[in-house]
Design a protein that fits this description.
- The protein is an alpha/beta fold.
- It folds into three domains: 4-39; 64-271, P-loop containing nucleotide triphosphate hydrolases (Rossmann fold), CATH 3.40.50; 275-452, Ribosomal Protein S5, domain 2 (2-Layer Sandwich).
- Helices cover 26% and strands 26% of the residues.
- The protein has helices spanning 71-77, 97-110, 124-134, 152-159, 184-201, 222-226, 273-276, 325-339, 364-376, 402-411, 441-452; strands spanning 5-10, 16-17, 33-38, 86-91, 115-119, 141-144, 163-167, 204-210, 229-234, 241-249, 257-263, 266-269, 288-295, 298-310, 318-321, 346-352, 384-386, 389-390, 396-397, 416-420, 434-438.
- The strands form four sheets. The chain has a nine-stranded mixed beta sheet, sandwiched between helices.
- A hairpin with a 2-residue loop joins strand 13 (288-295) and strand 14.
- Helix 8 packs across helix 9.
- The protein is globular, with a radius of gyration of 26 Å.
- It binds thymidine-5'-diphosphate (TYD) and magnesium ion (MG).
- Thymidine-5'-diphosphate (TYD) binds next to helix 2 and helix 3.
Length: 453
Amino acid sequence: MGKNVIKFVCGECGYESGKWLGRCPACNSWNTLQEERIDNKPRITGELKGRAVALSHIENERVERFSTGIGELDRVLGGGIVPGSLILLGGDPGIGKSTLLLQVADHIAGKGEKVLYLSGEESFKQIRLRSLRLGINNENIYLLNEQNIDFLGDFVQKIKPRLVIIDSIQTVYSGNLSSIPGSVSQLKECTARITELAKASDISVFLVGHVTKEGAIAGPKILEHMVDVVVYFEGEKNFAFRLLRGIKNRFGATDELGILEMTGQGLLEVKDPSQYFLDTEAKNVSGTAVAVSFEGSRPFLIEMQALVASSLPPYVRRMAFGIEQNRLALLIAVLEKRRGILLTNCDVYLKVTGGLFLKDPAVDLAVIGAVFSSYKDKPLPSDMVFIGEVGLSGKIRQVPFIDARLKEAEKMGYKKAVIPAGLSFKPGFDPRMEIIQVGMLDEFIEVLMEGWG
Ligand code: TYD
Ligand code: MG
């Protein structure tokens, strides 16, 4: 018989230590080591259960996915839910995770399949209130208030659901361990148990996970490694729209972005995202430029707002909301060096509308356009979009999917586009917009200055 061992595990990164420490040596966070008791069970001997099979002998099975009923969620999942898969849905409290999953439950229940909804956070009454608000009243949705995961298998046997929702993974526990729900070993154990159950009975499972203030799903990264798909649900509380962002997907691409809107009747799909990120009121004011950003598999138009205000060194500020701070600093440096525009006596603020965070470098040109427009205090043409990456040398670099970006801009009624020089369009694509090609930052600034006469 092995003996029970006590160890200390960091709640942030999963680092293990034999003794308690005030600060985790791996991730440097304070006071995160928790005591965990490991029951060392002897290795089981007996009949061999696993098997090794030649790859070529495995039947070629097509993955049959089923829809969540919410197109934007299906998009992020790679086309729907794969049977037997574990999906982790992370997000801040109050962002709408329970609402989203109740809507998914309703869709699947509407198809005549059963859904088991384990709620460790809210009472039946609270969920009932939400369901009434959403107009959801399906007898195929079963609520469960058993937080001990050891019994989940029994309920699955009895109800035979197609989908199980665990809201949230931080509130369930297994009786095998003495540590509290939400501790690292409980999260690992429960997720492992749920995975076993899902794979054995081919049911799909959504796990809700809370996000810590640092923006990671509470508990170690290990949880993300254990599931098949990780989706983050994000948004600003004071904006109505919400973003679904794929972080990991064993069955599809991870760079997809789903956009939903929180309304009085729950979450609705946003079919035309461009409309959301354009501030139509702000036409003809200096400091705004429209970019065409590519997120996942589709382009959308989004407005950059810059404010350049005089300041006194050494207190000048550079603040970016929605792109990386360093990228703003870099673009300002390029503008200073390549064009001799000195912003050393200026604060520069940059904001992407709608609380989105953009990684697509193709928005560089719009950032520079917005900053320059604010610096000159002259508005850019309101029917113009800006597409291009800006290199350190001041070269305007080419970007992928130019055709799709221009089509989106055309669709939204824009008449002119500034794009990198030397781009060729796919045969058959003939933009109706006026296309202005710029090779270097200098040329770009000239184009803007000409417009101002
Ligand atoms: P909820 O799904 O409880 O969030 P989470 O599970 O992520 O903590 O949703 C919380 C918010 O959504 C709450 O503040 C109320 C709002 N809400 C709506 O605006 N419309 C609706 O139809 C519903 C059900 C909720
Ligand atoms: Mg909830």
